[in-house]
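Hi there,

I know you've been waiting on this one. I reran it after we fixed the sequence typo, so this is the corrected version. Both the input and the resulting structure follow.
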Amino acid sequence: MAFVIEQQFNDVRHQYDPEGDVLYISFGPPVPAVTIDIEGWLAIRLVPNPPMLSGFTFIGFKRLFSKMRPDLIQEIPERVSRIKKSRFHIGYSDESDTLMLRFEDEQPVYYEAFGNNIYMERSLISSDIVGFKITHYTDQGVNSLERLVTGMLDALFASPHSSPRQVDGLTHALIKHLDIPTLVKLAA
């Protein structure tokens, strides 16, 4: 079923619970949402109708990021306020069986192969990664998303001396749009 989620994050709220070591980030007032759990440390909250992101919960936030960025907790208010400048667009086309995610407004782009059916979308002007697309989504989408997320997590937690990989660019693009660029530099 074709869909488009397009969202700006004008109303971003956060709360850090130091006792539970949990960071809550929400986009707007509380609403009923579906939660997707990723490996027990990240929960993504989605509103099904109209489709939009409701928020994120990072469980064990300080524990996860203390080795890379011990100062990150103090920077949370500033980082969250920068999310307000972000724009998110995700869509799926039945006709082409393609899922596309973009962090930026429309601009001239080119695609660079990442895997069998995964392509990084790069700006023609700056060569920055501005999104990605997954073709053959019905048959290969879940595995492709898993490869992307696993690769990004590996990039976040890689040792500082590891060789750069293509997924590092995607991880950098995502973190840049959540505006945590120093995290990527320290992790990559």
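Quick highlight: The first strand starts at residue 3 and ends at 8.

Best,
R. S.
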